[in-house]
Fold:
Amino acid sequence: MKSTRTPRVKICCIGSVEEAALAVECGASALGLVSHMPSGPGVISDELIAEIAALVPPAIGTFLLTSRQSVREIVAQQRSCRTNTIQICDHLTSGTHRELKEALPGISVVQVVHVTGPKSVEEAGRLASSVDAILLDSGNQKLAVKELGGTGRTHDWSLSRMIRERIGIPLFLAGGLTPENVGQAVEEVGPFGLDVCSGVRTEGKLDAAKLKRFFSAVGGAADQT
Structure:
């Protein structure tokens, strides 16, 4: 069964108050604010994340992308950054998602699953009961220097669709999305939301023309499903 609604769009790797305003003006439902990562683009300070989050309209999701793996550390970071959503980009190694949600009532918790093969379908299925949404990306946590997002690569969307059909919570699709391929992604996966970083940037800067093409392609794809 295909999705019949227009997916929400999260613009990730927001680097300034000005980029946040441009993304919202173009139609973003959520913004990704990247804290310290072992690799990848878009990292900004926790202080700047807090500044941007404080200025974003309340209806817009502000996602704190964290590589921290301890619930205690994630709670402390969110209380400093004051975003309304936490995006956990790695595995929790200390504490549980339930403990995180209990410590931060009213804050949404999104767990990233890096789609590397059939085991990712099982992983997403296990996690779905503990979080508010799953975000599928194209990183690899097993590399010597972990890739936790921002790779600019697509992954196997047939696995993404299997996950979407298996879980009963919202699913965001990330990884190598562009104005040129996002229509196909919407058709093949039927996600609740889309997450894009490099595909709407030119030389690292958010590009208004690419943003508009991306949103136009998303709307066109949704009309055909």
Remarks:
- DSSP finds eight helices and ten strands in the chain.
- The CA atoms of residues 117 and 159 lie 7 Å apart.
- The mean pLDDT is 90.
- The two ends are 10 Å apart (CA to CA).
